[in-house]
Amino acid sequence: MGSVHHTEVSSMREQGVFSLEDNGHSERSQWMLDSPNPPPLWKKLFSSVKETIFPHGNKFCFSSKKKTCQGHVVSFLQSLFPILSWLRNYKASKFKDDLLAGLTLASLSIPQSIGYANLAKLDPEYGLYTSVVPPLIYAMMGSSREIAIGPVAVVSLLLCSLVQKVEDPVANPHAYRNFVFTVTFFTGIFQTAFGVFRLGFLVDFLSHAALVGFMAGAAIIIGLQQLKGLLGISHFTTKTDAVSVLTSVYKSLHHQITSAEKWCPLNFVLGCSFLIFLLITRFLGRRNKKLFWLPAISPLLSVVISTLIVYLSKADKHGINIIKHVKGGLNPSSAHLLEFHGEHVGQAAKIGLICAIIALTEAIAVGRSFASIKGYHLDGNKEMLSMGFMNIAGSLSSCYVATGSFSRTAVNFSAGCQTAVSNIVMAITVIVSLELFTRLLYYTPVAILASIILSALPGLIDISEACYIWKVDKLDFLACVGAFLGVLFASVEIGLIVAVTISFAKILIQAIRPGIEVLGRVPRTEAFCDVTQYPMAISTPGIIVIRISSGSLCFANANFVRERILKWVSEDDDLKSTAKGRVQAVILDMTNLMNVDTSGILALEELHKRLLSRGVELAMINPRWLVIHKLKLAHFVDKIGKQWIFLTVGEAVDACISSKFASP
């Protein structure tokens, strides 16, 4: 095949230039040129909102004229509240499983919620409040059957580290609490906007690798933060980096041991004893799946037993730090506490955006993991909407930012939950606890809360995943390590900035230096592939076939693409010094190119001029909808000629080979 092509092209080159005749491709190229104009930007935005609210789009509006207004309302409500769809087929057997799962979940959620509220520098009851309203809202609006909603360690740490720079939780606890509620409101607003306008790609800016590093770094920082409660230290730093925390621990211990203010080692002994108990039950639960309930109820058992020990032995009078007062009752309204006027509103919105992205990233990752196990699809936009609504409602009912917890979701899944009713059972159980049992938490040791949080942290550190990332993609591993070190030795926000910066840099490098491949025909096929990947592919003499492997030809990469193509043409001419060896045509495969901006069009025009000055023609293959539309508006199609637009690479190459040459 290669020798035949060489003979035909050699005879054609003697004439000097290509001159295409009508060879049957005109009709197919006309299909591309006559394609309808793409929809304008405002229509795309409207369609995205419409698809989010009415997922069945056209069917909802036009499929049945007989459909009543009431039917439309029912369809809309079922789309917004999925519980209305599956609740009709809900059976007693499912409720039995959900009841057991919900009670098991509550036994883990109650102590963890108190501990995470302590981590967020809030009173214990706010953690319990956060395990009531958000789970109820999510159960009605969410699409995941297994995800367990409530406060989580990473978001609690994030709030603590960011909010305490604006309001001091010690000097002004009420202002700190109000600011947290305001941040939660903005978090819900941003999450809702992500869902309505389909802006989920913003969540993807924190890549999987960066998230693995961020979670691992955050887990270590959370663990270091618990040293205050575990050791019974009275003086502690407000900074979150590892060096500052360890320095603070050393100075505080040294001060309390050497000064009149005595340090009580009983806090450490009690906390470590129950930490060992919690880790043993966790190990047994992993070894034997039938004992899944053991690590789930062990935190609650630890709280009950340690509280009884302190109460009966009056250990609080001998140096054991206790929670003391926990406010009972249902969630009070906090609408009047939100602050939308003042100098810190911008800060609240910024922190809310960060929390929205982190919370959504964790929740969607958790939800999709378990949805894939059960074999159903998780609707990302519905998740964003439900998370947004539940955090807005939470901010109005004394809750702080809630999201999906991996550890509690794993317990919910292992307990055999069937639907989101398990979240409702858990929320009702927490309500009962708030009404009846909060007084019993008075003597609960602070060290126990620290041990409960510490026992949950190993699940956040995924060493095997980090090794896998290193093996597959070194640049991804750099983002992972950057996020980890940034969180560990600088601050949570620095870790996030480093992770997002490295992820952006990776995207930018790929955008600025897109893949540009020289193609050849694979023997005994009609496929044209990269000659570097497929060395057996045959390049047609006198014709260079180039594929632009980039989603966009834009200001960032247009000049690079143009210069690379011209360089290849020049090198090919230099290698073949005789007139017969010169390049006569460049074919651009634009199949992968989804968009082009004005800089890209200018680069194509400049490329066309430079090639014409060398006596080389330019052909385009299968320009996509938006690309061909813009090229027509810029009159570039008229400049190169409609006859130089083809549907396939093979068609273009064959047309060039079979065409005649005009006389010079």
Automatic annotation (TrEMBL):
Topology in membrane: Multi-pass membrane protein
Keyword Glycosyltransferase: no
Protein name listed in UniProt: Putative SLC26A/SulP transporter
Pfam family, one: Sulfate_transp
GO cellular component: membrane
Similarity comment text for this entry: Belongs to the SLC26A/SulP transporter (TC 2.A.53) family.
Residues passing through the membrane, by range: 147-164, 176-197, 209-227, 266-284, 291-312, 348-367, 388-407, 413-433, 440-461, 481-505
Protein location: Membrane
Major location category of this protein: membrane
Domain called STAS: residue spans: 550-656
A GO MF label: secondary active sulfate transmembrane transporter activity
Source organism of the structure: Lupinus albus
